[in-house]
Design goal:
alpha+beta
Length: about 170
């Protein structure tokens, strides 16, 4: 019971953090308020991680691709990321917001599944992609510039949808 209450509280806090993050990253206007309200209405909780799940759209030369991504908003959630997870759905991922934008580097310590790690600038443009990151590898995979967020997808998915630097990611 305590664990379930903690998981629920963690999910609520993650959703609250997400709304604060959306507000901080959005222009202050009636449209931004409406967008935050829409995001709150669309937010759900991932059954395995307890993190908020939001829609994310990637625009590539091949068209739009929509994912449902878990939001690792707190430093603890970001440190854990997808460690020890054995599966992730084809159109799922995890996003790591970084406010303020800054250089970022990820590794695959304790990460069982292969990932594409996509570094995204504060302008929502892809900076670079660490494709097919190897499970358990502790090699540092850095951003090529200040990252406003980092997106993790299943390994090979970025190439499959034609994702490349300069493409736009919105959430």
């Amino acid at each position: 019971m305590i664990r379930k209450t903690f998981a629920t509280l963690t999910g609520v806090l993650a959703a609250s953090s997400l709304l604060v993050w959306i507000a901080a990253c959005s222009p202050v206007s009636a449209g931004a308020t409406a967008a935050a309200s829409t995001a709150a209405a669309e937010t759900r909780i991932h059954p395995q991680s307890g993190l908020a799940v939001i829609p994310l759209k990637v625009m590539t030369a091949k068209g739009a691709h929509v994912f449902q991504v878990e939001v690792a908003a707190s430093s603890l959630e970001q440190a854990r990321g997808l460690m020890w997870r054995t599966t992730m759905g084809a159109d799922e991922g995890m996003i790591f917001p970084m406010v303020p934008a800054r250089p970022a580097a990820f590794w695959m310590r304790n990460t069982v599944i292969g990932l594409d790690i996509i570094f995204i600038g504060a302008d929502h443009k892809v900076l670079n992609i660490a494709a097919n990151a190897v499970p358990y590898d502790e090699t540092s995979l850095p951003s090529l510039g200040d990252a406003g967020c980092v997106l993790e997808l299943n390994a090979g998915h970025a190439a499959e949808i034609g994702l490349k630097p300069g493409d736009t990611v919105t959430w």
